[in-house]
């Protein structure tokens, strides 16, 4: 059975999901996709005939857990600040530097289209209960977002 990219979890007040990935890169890609699908109707945005563009995302962190948190929060704040209709996210490079820090560069794909494609208003990606685990098939990350 193929491992899913992510799955949403029941949560009493906020929204929560687990993202999976065979590598650290695919884990972050799938976590970002789960966040985008919570927030926006990405299928409708993707179907639009409008021209695609992208925003560069760059983050550094001392741990993989913090890198996931910082990256997802950067995706959220970029979408909110620039009122973007984002539909995809792709890690371009993820490096562990000699000092042990992680650095990521990625692209957040967007389209300029009129209309409201919002599904859920996400206020923040929280560090509360955020965890990243190495598994037998790769990695998993449990993430809670404040809605």
What does this structure look like?
The mean pLDDT is 94. With 147 residues, the chain is α+β, with helices and mostly antiparallel strands. α1 (24-39) runs parallel beside α3 (64-82). It contains three helices and seven strands. 33% of the residues are buried. It has a four-stranded antiparallel sheet with strand order 1-2-7-6, with helices on one face. A hairpin with a 5-residue loop joins β4 and β5. The protein has one domain: Archease domain (Archease, Possible Chaperone, Chain: A, domain 1, 3-Layer(bab) Sandwich).
Which short descriptors sum up this protein?
147 residues; alpha+beta; Archease, Possible Chaperone, Chain: A, domain 1; 3-stranded antiparallel β-sheet; 3 helices; 7 strands; 28% helix; globular
- Major sheet characteristics: 4 strands, antiparallel
Strand content: 35-45%
Label the overall shape.
Answer: globular
Order of helices and strands: EEHHEHEEEE
Task: Write down the CATH topology.
Answer: Archease, Possible Chaperone, Chain: A, domain 1
**Helical fraction:** 25-40%
Q: Please work out how many helical segments DSSP would assign.
A: 3
Measured distance between first and last alpha carbons: 32 Å
Number of domains: 1
What would CATH call the class? Alpha Beta
> Spans of 5+ residues with little confidence (pLDDT < 50)?
none
Q: For this structure, what is the CATH homologous superfamily?
A: Archease domain
Largest beta sheet: strand ordering = 1-2-7-6
Number of strands: 7
Structural class by sheet pairing and helices = alpha+beta
Q: Oligomeric status of the shown chains? A: single chain
By CATH, the architecture is named 3-Layer(bab) Sandwich
Radius of gyration: 15 Å
Average pLDDT taken over every residue: 94
